[in-house]
């Protein structure tokens, strides 16, 4: 009887004990292996969000968007219409023109980099280099040698043998400086004809004795009429787009 009672006790304890299950294997997407160089899903999300935050900066500084917005801003100031067209319209027009100019470059980058990567013909690093080549060539076309030399000197970097070997940390700020200079030059040229109208109207109003009426208020209709008669929007936008080809 004692042996039977002991066996019944052990059987009950075994049935009441919780089953020990093996630990679930970690999902391959949730593991970040530093030795193999793979990046898990959380890190991919962090990198994607970081890239999205930098995307507006690249759009505004590393594309024709910079020059176009500068020129349109100077044009509005030269005509004398402080809020027409509005900032939203100016930015929208600049964005659409940027898409028109960059479309061939992005298409070439997609065909050389992303498409072979999808088809398994190139690995990640090689696909990145191939896809970045058209964009790099586009930026180099509008970079001034003087700006590149200055940035190399202040950063204490070694001068590359060819322009294609420029690092992004040198190429991108050099492109921004070059575009700022070009935009200011075009803006100064746009100011000249409207400045002549302002001087003529100011001299006429002062000679007649109209002192209380601001000359800018009188010259604004004439500047707008001149701009419309010469089809100014077509000339300015057409010249801007052609300057990138």
Secondary-structure map:
Blueprint: H1 2-16, H2 41-61, H3 65-79, H4 87-118, H5 124-141, H6 145-154, H7 168-208, H8 215-229, H9 232-242
Give your account of this protein's structure:
It contains nine helices and no strands. By secondary structure, it is an all-alpha fold. It is 73% helix and 0% strand. Residues 1-37 have low confidence and may be disordered. α3 runs antiparallel to α4, α3 runs parallel beside α7 and α6 (145-154) packs across α7 (168-208). The protein has a domain at 60-190 and 232-242. The radius of gyration is 32 Å and the shape is elongated.
Which features does this protein show?
single chain; 73% helix
User: What integer is the average pLDDT?
Assistant: 78
Number of helices: 9
Give the radius of gyration. 32 Å
Structural class given helices, strands, pairing? mainly alpha
- In terms of DSSP E residues, the strand content is under 5%
Helix and strand succession? Answer: HHHHHHHHH
Low-pLDDT residue spans: 1-37
Question: What is the terminal-to-terminal distance?
Answer: 102 Å
Helix content: over 70%
What shape does the CA trace take?
elongated
Main β-sheet, in a few words? none
The overall strand count is 0
Task: Give me a quick take on this structure.
The protein is built from nine helices and no strands. It is mainly α and 245 residues long. The longest helix is centred in the C-terminal third of the chain and has 41 residues, at 168-208.
């Amino acid at each position: 009887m004692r042996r039977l009672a002991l066996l019944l006790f052990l059987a009950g304890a075994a049935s009441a004990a919780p089953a020990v299950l093996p630990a679930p294997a970690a999902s391959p997407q949730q593991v970040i292996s530093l030795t193999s160089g793979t990046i898990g899903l959380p890190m991919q999300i962090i990198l994607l969000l970081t890239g999205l935050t930098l995307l507006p900066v690249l759009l505004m500084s590393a594309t024709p968007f910079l020059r176009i917005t500068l020129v349109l801003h100077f044009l509005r100031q030269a005509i004398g219409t402080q809020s027409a067209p509005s900032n939203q319209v100016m930015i929208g027009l600049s964005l659409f023109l940027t898409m028109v100019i960059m479309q061939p470059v992005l298409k070439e980058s997609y065909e050389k980099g992303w498409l072979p990567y999808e088809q398994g013909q190139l690995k990640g690093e090689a696909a990145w280099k191939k896809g970045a080549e058209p964009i790099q060539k586009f930026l180099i076309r509008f970079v001034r040698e003087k700006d590149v030399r200055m940035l190399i000197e202040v950063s204490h970097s070694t001068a590359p043998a060819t322009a294609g070997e420029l690092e992004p940390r040198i190429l991108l700020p050099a492109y921004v400086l070059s575009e700022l200079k070009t935009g200011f030059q075009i803006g100064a040229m746009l100011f000249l004809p409207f400045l002549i109208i302002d001087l003529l109207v100011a001299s006429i109003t002062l000679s007649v004795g109209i002192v209380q009426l601001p000359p800018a208020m009188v010259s604004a209709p004439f500047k707008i009429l001149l701009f419309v008669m010469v089809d100014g929007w077509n000339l300015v936008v057409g010249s801007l787009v052609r300057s990138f080809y």
